[in-house]
Amino acid sequence: MARRIESHSIVGPAGTLESLLEEPEDAEPRLAVLVCHPHPLYGGTMHNKVVYRTARGLRRAGAVVLRFNFRGVGTSEGEHAHLTGEIEDARAALRWLRERYPELPFALAGFSFGSRVITRLGCEIDSAQWLLALGFPTRLGSTEYFEACRLPRIIIQSTHDEFGPRAEIEALYERLTEPKKLIWVESKDHFFAGALDELETQVNLVGQALPRDFQK
Question: What are the pLDDT digits (tens) for 154-184?
Fold first, then answer.
């Protein structure tokens, strides 16, 4: 069976947001996940390879996945708003997803800049099953909000990530409160070059897990 995929225009705070909704092929979804893309000013879109692989790994784990373009990207209206506005875009997209699937638990995932968006939003609303940060950029502002967050937080990081170097990620991870999990993927750079299959495998495992699985 082909994957079920739909295009939608979501009403956001700066105009409509271009989005793609994907459901599992062979079963009803058991989880709804919002996935956010990397930095809009550096070519980031919902079609980024890491974002696509993340969405596919989660979908194959039984999740319905919503990807969308931040304001000013693709056909999404508005202009880049330096993280603050993009958090509000994600809030609007998540609201739409939860209204469409009100009976499903939800989770948040994001790559690079998108990981900052979903961790800021998720730690604020404090009701997601888990937060999945891929390629978390350590130097994009304070991480205090992330360290004190009570939700299960999973970081998947490249061993050679130039925007979230190993030493900085390990130091951050030590400061995080439980529950938490850190997964290293042996790869060449921030974009998981040469390791997208392994990345997708790890994302799929996260998608299959329950919140209690991230407890010590």
Answer: 999 999 999 999 999 999 999 999 999 999 9
As a whole number of angstroms, the distance between CA 137 and CA 151 comes to: 19
Task: Determine if the pTM surpasses 0.90.
Answer: yes
Best CA proximity match to 181, nearest among 211, 160, 161, 201? 211
Class of domain 4-162+182-210: alpha beta
Residue among 148, 162, 215 nearest 191 (CA): 162
Report the alpha-carbon distance of residue 94 to residue 96 in Å, rounded. Answer: 5
Q: DSSP states of 34-91 as a string?
A: EEE-S-GGGT--TT-HHHHHHHHHHHTTTEEEEEEPPTTSTT--S---TTHHHHHHHH
Q: Where are the domains of the chain?
A: 4-162+182-210
Each residue of 99-129: pLDDT tens digit? Answer: 999 999 999 999 999 999 999 999 999 899 9
Written as six digits, the tokens of 17 are 């947001």
